[in-house]
TrEMBL record:
Superkingdom, taxonomy of origin: Bacteria
Gene Ontology cellular component annotations, sorted alphabetically: plasma membrane
Membrane topology type: Multi-pass membrane protein
The entry's keywords: Membrane, Transmembrane, Transmembrane helix
Protein name: Phosphoribose diphosphate--decaprenyl-phosphate phosphoribosyltransferase
Main location: membrane
Cited CDD domains: PT_UbiA_2
UniProt-listed GO biological process terms: glycolipid biosynthetic process
Keyword Nucleus in record: no
A Pfam entry, by short name: UbiA
Transmembrane domains' residue ranges: 44-64, 85-106, 112-131, 161-179, 208-227, 252-272, 284-307
GO molecular function: transferase activity, transferring alkyl or aryl (other than methyl) groups
Length: 308
């Protein structure tokens, strides 16, 4: 009985989605503070807090959306939609998980982090109950959740945060949100079920989604390029002495811009050609070029910020 309950909780908690909470590391990572004494354990704890809050929200969302999920070709097998996880048990689990996690955050983090965690929880609840059915606003709510994650990470120490980093986060999250909806429309229209699942999909014309995806991709690369330029270290004096006068003040972080451009272009290829963008976290974990791009970006950025 306990095993079955824990299996249903884990299946509804969507641990693969916890990847989104790595956004908490953005501010300290780009401030080259992540390796400072005691910082990493603190952020691991913050990551767990937001992961548990996210899971509580996913369980609640599955309860609200269970009737539509039963008509979805993939979501119909989720524990709540399939009936394996009862609605009362799911609601109680979600409430206990969210409340307990917020109490833990209040006892172990400052009030700014706690306030952001509460705002994140409220954002998730309003999305499930109302915003998910409002065209365009649903994607903006997704972007807002990512921004709250970035600010929560900045509040942990606390540490300053670049406005251009926040803008880059908004662009990337909008790209993923609109790309997800575009892929969902493609998948469901093939199965002639477009009008029976996510309500907003019937209001999203393909031309609008294509325009928003193109805008978000451009916005992301531009914002990240400016962020890289403004925050880039110039490297050690030894490296600078080896360069000609033309490159006397190199902006090393700009070397990562082509990597980001390739990653964005690859994601667009996945959405439009492979038609697999309905699960961004799955794309990151299973598409080898995307996975390699993320790894290359992390390694290059780490070397630029922490080694040069």
């Amino acid at each position: 009985m306990l095993y079955r309950y824990l299996k249903n909780v884990l299946g509804s908690a969507r641990p693969r989605q916890w990847l989104k909470n790595l956004a908490l590391l953005a501010a300290p990572f780009f401030r080259a503070e992540i390796l400072n004494a005691g910082v990493l354990p603190r952020f691991i704890t913050a990551f767990i807090v937001f992961s548990l809050l996210s899971s509580a929200a996913y369980i609640f969302n599955d309860v609200v959306d269970r009737s539509r999920d039963r008509r979805h070709p993939i979501k119909k097998d989720r524990p709540i939609a399939s009936g394996r996880f009862s609605v009362p048990a799911a609601l109680l689990t979600s409430a206990i998980l969210a409340t307990g996690t917020l109490i833990f955050a209040a006892a172990n983090f400052n009030r700014y982090f706690l306030g952001t965690a509460i705002a994140f929880t409220a954002l998730q609840l309003t999305y499930s109950l109302l915003i998910r059915n409002v065209i365009i606003m649903d994607a903006l709510w997704v972007a807002a959740a990512f921004v709250l994650r970035v600010y929560a990470g900045a509040f942990v120490l606390p540490t300053p945060i670049s406005s251009w980093l926040v803008l880059s986060t908004i662009g990337l999250s909008l790209l993923l949100a609109f790309g997800k909806r575009r892929s969902e429309r493609t998948l469901l229209s093939k199965l002639h079920r477009r009008l029976l699942t996510r309500e907003t999909l019937r209001h999203y014309p393909d031309t609008l989604l294509d325009s928003m995806i193109a805008m978000s991709a451009t916005y992301t690369t531009l914002a990240y390029s400016i962020f890289s330029f403004q925050t880039s270290p110039t490297g050690s004096k030894f490296l600078t002495d080896l360069l000609p006068e033309t490159l006397s003040s190199p902006k090393w972080a700009l070397l990562t811009v082509p990597v980001v451009i390739y990653g964005v272009a690859r994601y667009l290829y996945i959405v439009y050609e492979k038609k697999e963008g309905e699960s961004p976290e799955k794309v990151i974990l299973t598409d080898l070029p995307i996975l390699g791009t993320v790894a290359a970006w992390v390694i290059a950025t780490f070397i630029i910020l922490y080694v040069l």
